[in-house]
Design a protein that fits this description.
Layout lengths: L1 H20 L1
Length: 22
């Protein structure tokens, strides 16, 4: 579960960063 949660968090963070850049 921890792995899945970490992965989801990472994807969400990446999406937020990309949105901020663009």
């Amino acid at each position: 579960m921890s792995s899945w949660d970490a992965r989801f968090d990472g994807e969400l963070f990446f999406a937020v960063v990309t949105t901020g850049i663009y």
